[in-house]
Amino acid sequence: MTAPLPELSRIIIADKVTTAGGFEVVKATDAECAALAERFDLLSVSGLTAKLRLRRVRSDFVKVTGELEADVVQRCVVTLEPVPAHVKEEFSALFAPEHLIPKEEEDGESDHFQYLGSDEDFPEAMPGGRIDIGELVAQNLSLALEPYPRKEGVEFTPILEDVGPDTLSLTEDTPPEPPRQNPFAALSRLKKPS
């Protein structure tokens, strides 16, 4: 049984990527945008387009860099009203053949990755020598979304500020805490004089 394809899928065969690199454009259809909106719990996604550069590095790896743009409508976390936004995000990813990806139980990083430098992301697997750049775009769209969207002019009022006379209130009317006793004071009273 095979897993269903992601909402936005564009497969690249890794063996066809050269060291000189090449460019790809991913433009989501209306149906793909609607499916992504459902996946990410958005009111809508439109105009999702990404420009990507793929190039082979260190013979076995494929580096993907790109920029995506989309118009999204999220729900305000306070009022649940629509919050439209234009998303523009740069991203990059490194892919490696499955046999070069260390297993989770292995300690540390594989020797294969030590020469790539600490600024590189840990590589993702490319099963069967295939890279789904559409799913990569979708994941980075998700990361670019505002985590707590608010409609313009809407302020969030913390619950603690909304206390009434029947609830515990930490205000100036609250009596101060009594001074704390030294925990060893009782022991010193038990000590016999010598």
Number of helical segments with 4 or more residues? 3
Shape: flat
What proportion strand? Answer: 25-35%
**Helix-strand pattern:** EEHEEEEEHH
Q: In what order do the strands lie side by side in the largest sheet?
A: 2-3-4-5-6
Our measurement of the CA-to-CA distance between the termini, rounded to an integer number of angstroms, reads 84 Å
Mean pLDDT: 82
Question: Sheet with the most strands?
Answer: 5 strands, mixed
Strands, total number: 7
Determine the fraction of residues in helical runs and give it as a percent range: 10-25%
Rg over CA atoms: 28 Å
Secondary-structure-based class equals: alpha+beta
Query: Uncertain segments of ≥5 residues (pLDDT<50)?
Result: 114-119
Annotation keywords:
194 residues; alpha+beta; flat
Model description:
- The structure is a single chain.
- By secondary structure, the chain is α+β, with helices and mostly antiparallel strands.
- Helix content is about 15%, strand content about 30%.
- The chain is built from three helices and seven strands.
- The protein has helices spanning about 30-40, 135-145, 185-190, and strands at about 10-15, 20-25, 45-55, 60-75, 80-95, 125, 130.
- The strands form two sheets. It has a five-stranded mixed β-sheet with strand order 2-3-4-5-6, covered by helices on one side. It has a two-stranded antiparallel sheet with strand order 1-7.
- The longest helix has 12 residues, at about 135-145.
- It is flat.
- The model is unreliable at about 115-120 (pLDDT under 50).
Outline of the structure:
With 194 residues, the protein is an alpha+beta fold.
